[in-house]
Design brief:
The complex is a heterodimer of chains A (586) and B (256).
Chain A (H helix, E strand, L loop, with lengths): L5 E6 L3 H12 L4 E5 L16 H6 L12 E4 L7 E2 L15 H4 L14 H9 L17 H15 L7 E2 L2 E2 L23 H12 L5 E2 L9 E2 L5 E2 L25 H8 L2 E5 L2 E7 L4 E7 L5 E11 L3 H10 L17 E7 L4 E4 L10 E9 L18 E8 L3 H4 L11 H10 L3 E10 L6 E9 L5 E6 L4 H20 L4 E3 L22 E3 L23 E3 L14 H19 L9
Parallel strand pairs in A: 1-2, 1-13, 2-10, 3-20, 13-23
Antiparallel strand pairs in A: 3-4, 5-6, 7-16, 8-9, 11-12, 12-13, 14-18, 14-22, 15-18, 15-21, 16-17, 17-18, 19-20
Helix pairs in contact in A: 1-7, 1-12, 5-12
Chain B lengths: L27 H11 L21 H14 L14 H10 L30 H19 L10 H12 L16 H17 L11 H6 L38
Helix pairs in contact in B: 2-4, 3-6, 5-6
Chain lengths: 586, 256
């Protein structure tokens, strides 16, 4: 049975669904939000969530892989097998999505990230791009996106120290960031001892450390939309947890209440979308199973695909929308350029006489070195392109998953027992968040064998780390090792240890939840699925919003860019598309 | 959504005791803050540890194998009890008997295929409970064959460690892998180490980390919010000593 038609329907109610719902309803449009998980959660729902086992180990807030997983093969020849237990990346479920359990690390991508292909060719020549690497320009510049970054940062209350305001480089900020129109909404978080040790050492070695930009408020904040939130308590339970005081920017305490307040937003939970109904030119409605298991059909003028990266691609593929990508011919666009990141073995410094209070922390409380990221450094003599950020985080080290020992200590036994006692409070790790660019053979399609609980094929990911990233990891690892050695610790995990990656991408180790691509943006329909407004080239009333639009990944956390793109899309729908439905480009 | 956490009563501000020198352990004004938050409540007597735990998933023999292994991971010594006395086997048994043991959050559709390459993770049709109940007797068979019919728990520590080392190296045939990329004893050993860490360091309400002895071992304070002691005022005080009696989320640290 078809339900009443609405102006727009969101499929998925995380950050992108929440931003779209807020912006469209405030402009007078009616929006239905479909969320397959549970309902809205506020800070009172997280009063008793300081439970590492339930949240970090068992993944209480993650997508439930027993009903829907993915499959992985490392190359085109390998047999794809299901990722049976979630670990390497952790999409969320329920209202707020992964925006509930994220850490709040909120960056802008570098100007060069948006034109990685052109930048590489201009600076080093086309031969610098390795065979098979399919990086491309985004079709949008950093400057075009800047106002929307600003909008998100002030809405969410991002705390940091600007490095570049309108071209003026500011001490203590990131000199490699693109020019921003004004400073962050708030000054940076309190600095941790570990961050200070890393920052001082890195600066002595000539790097430019700066405080990690944070969506966890250092002080109470009222945003331009009038939403007020209290400050962070530094309890050390951000990533994998909901915030019990609402200090962490989360769709449930920001954009979704904005949408609710208009009276034009209806949120339906337990609604699992299985198909977008269309006529080959326009999307007509979305079909979903409601909480009672009945198939429902929601017609809408505008269809907003706002699920996680994998389901954005999957919904198009199962609905027969767009041409699936074929890695043999290079034709087709849906599923193209899946990318991820590398987070290789970090360098660590172990101190006998330092107490970093590792249990205290906040999700985006770190000191970052961006000198070796993107094209911020000269790659002329190097055998890779791209780079990564080096980060000393104080996000709260919890004991089940967080204990570290020097590399010569066994993983069990009396020495291990003594070593965890000796080192818990005095260990400083330098994480590497590196780029994993896109390749012709890295893509998403429908698995031919494995299905979800609703009977739909799982997404099959074809992905592995390539030589470029292995060399990058080794290079960043060596640089990190130099930094930890300069701290004069009592023991190190340094040269020969830091920067290593497994023989193949390993789904059992948490790396990042920064999955990208599959429905990528660009300036022409041969090489991209959506234009820079995240509007499908072939179906102008369907917008596919999220990190699925990234042609390749960067070496920084993606949420700031995801949100900026969503705000830009929302503005284009409200100001232009609504008046004159049709393609927004070309 | 799966929630296999035990139910617990609403949180109250519970007693909190500073270790050692009390105010002397902290600097001036901060010490006063901590003490005022901690003060006023009597320190309860140490909780009586139940002597015999009723097993829910493991047989006594299986529990003995798991306990002997866990005590080689985190051995008893003059400074602290070993893993079993801290409740690791009780924790493991409870988890195996619960949702996790039954395969909650695990994708369990076939076909089940042994990976031909590394990086694919767990691919067996067994849930964790079935897996443990398959593997632990196999380990005992291996031990019996090598050590004259004796059980793992009866061996000298050095011999137990030799068994652990063989497991870690993937050298014990568990009957679950045809090749090195399958579920070898090394894969089981990795999983076991994870489960032992959970039993040592999860909130005491799960039955491990008895009397917060796991947290006490590493000087981890537990749940700072349990006693209304957020770190906001301490975070920038890098060199102020912060050592407190750890507290779990459940007010009395009792398994519920």
């Amino acid at each position: 049975m078809a339900l009443d038609r609405v102006d727009a329907v969101c499929i998925g109610m995380g950050w992108t669904g929440g931003i779209m719902a807020a912006e469209l309803t405030k402009a007078g449009m009616t929006v239905v939000g479909l969320e397959r998980g549970g309902g809205q959660r506020n800070s009172e729902d997280f009063q008793q969530d300081h439970d590492e086992l339930a949240y970090s180990v068992r993944g209480q807030l993650y997508q439930d892989f027993s009903t829907e997983a993915l499959t992985l093969r490392h190359d085109l020849r390998e047999r794809a097998l299901p990722i049976r237990r979630i670990a390497s990346f952790c999409p969320g479920t329920g209202v707020g999505g992964a925006g509930v359990h994220w850490n709040g690390q909120t960056f802008r991508y570098h100007p060069s990230d948006f034109r990685m292909r052109s930048e590489t060719i201009e600076r080093y020549g086309a031969g610098k791009i390795p065979d098979g690497m399919s990086i491309q320009d985004w079709g949008i510049t950093y400057e075009e996106l800047e106002p929307y970054y600003d909008r998100f940062e002030y809405m969410a209350g991002i705390a940091g120290r600007a490095g570049n305001i309108r071209g003026a480089i500011r001490p203590g900020g990131n000199p490699f960031e693109g020019a921003r129109d004004r400073d962050y909404a708030l000054g940076p978080m309190q600095e941790s001892y570990a961050g200070a040790v890393f920052g001082e050492t890195a600066a002595q070695l000539g790097y430019h450390p700066f405080p990690q930009p944070s969506a966890n408020l250092p002080e109470a904040y009222v945003n331009p939309q009038g939403v007020s939130r209290s400050h962070c308590l530094y309890c050390g339970f951000c990533e994998n947890y909901g915030c019990e005081v609402g200090a962490k920017a989360d769709p449930n305490v920001t954009v979704i209440p904005e949408a609710m307040k208009t009276g034009r937003f209806e949120l339906r939970t337990g609604a699992n979308v299985v198909r977008i109904v269309h006529d080959g030119k326009q999307g007509k409605a979305v079909q979903y199973y409601d909480r009672a298991g009945r198939l429902q059909e929601q017609p809408a003028d505008v269809i907003l695909v706002t699920a996680w990266v994998f389901n954005n691609a999957r919904l198009l593929l199962v609905s027969d929308i767009g041409e699936p990508y074929d890695p043999q011919t290079g034709r087709g666009v849906i599923g193209r350029n899946y990318a991820y990141q590398i987070m290789p073995t970090p360098a660590r410094a172990f101190f006998k006489d330092k107490d970093f209070h590792p249990f205290m922390g906040s999700g985006a409380n770190g000191v970052v070195v961006d000198d070796l990221n993107a094209d911020n450094f000269d790659h002329a003599g190097l055998d890779f392109i791209g780079g990564g950020a080096l980060i000393a985080e104080s996000t709260g080290i919890r004991p089940i998953l967080g204990l570290q020992v020097p590399p010569d200590v066994p993983k069990w036994g009396a020495r291990w027992k003594q070593s965890i006692r000796d080192n818990y409070r005095g260990t400083l790790s330098v994480l590497i968040q590196g780029q994993s660019p896109s390749y012709r053979t890295h893509y998403l399609d429908l698995d031919p064998t494995y299905r979800d609980a609703a009977g739909l094929p799982l997404v099959r990911m074809t992905f592995d780390f390539q030589d470029n990233e292995r060399r990058m990891g080794a290079y960043l690892g060596a640089k990190s090792a130099d930094i930890v050695r300069a701290m004069n610790p009592d023991a190190v995990a340094g040269h020969g240890v830091a920067g290593a990656l497994e023989p193949h991408y390993d789904v059992t180790r948490y790396q990042t939840t920064h999955n990208t691509g599959g429905v990528i943006m660009g300036s022409d329909p041969q090489h991209s699925a959506v234009n820079t407004y995240q509007q499908l080239w072939d179906f102008p009333n369907i917008f596919v919003i999220g990190a699925s639009s990234f042609p390749q990944n960067a070496g920084l956390n993606p949420t700031g860019t995801v949100a900026a793109l969503a705000y830009r899309t929302a503005e284009a729908i409200v100001d232009r598309y609504r008046r004159r439905p049709g393609p927004l480009v070309g | 959504m799966t929630d296999d956490r035990p139910r617990r009563p609403p949180r109250t501000l519970s007693r909190r005791r500073l270790l050692g020198g009390g105010a002397a352990a902290l600097g001036g004004g901060l010490a006063a803050t901590v003490l005022s938050r901690a003060g006023g409540e009597a320190d309860p007597a140490p909780r009586q540890v139940a002597g015999t735990q009723r097993l829910r998933a493991l047989s006594p023999a299986e529990a003995a194998t798991a306990g002997a292994m866990a005590d080689r991971v985190f051995p008893p010594d003059a400074q602290s009890p070993g893993a079993t006395a801290i409740g690791v086997v009780a924790y493991l048994d409870g988890q195996l008997a619960g949702d996790w043991g039954a395969g909650a959050r695990l994708y369990r559709h076939g076909p089940f295929v042994e990976p031909s390459d590394s990086g694919h993770g767990y691919q067996l049709p067994l849930n964790p409970r079935e897996l443990y109940k398959h593997v632990l007797p196999r380990i005992e068979s291996y031990v019996a064959g090598r050590y004259g019919g004796r059980a793992l728990a009866e061996l000298a520590a050095a011999d137990q460690d030799a068994v652990m080392t063989a497991l870690e190296a993937g050298d014990v045939d568990l009957g679950l892998a045809d090749r090195s990329t399958g579920f070898t004893s090394a894969a089981f050993f990795t999983m076991f180490l994870e489960n032992v860490a959970e039993g040592l360091f999860a909130d005491p309400m799960y039955g491990g980390n008895r009397d917060v002895q796991g947290w006490r071992w590493i000087d981890y304070p537990g749940d700072p919010m349990a006693y209304g002691d957020p770190y906001f005022g301490f975070f920038s005080s890098w060199h102020v000593s912060y050592h407190v009696e750890p507290t779990g989320m459940s007010p009395m640290d009792e398994p519920i």
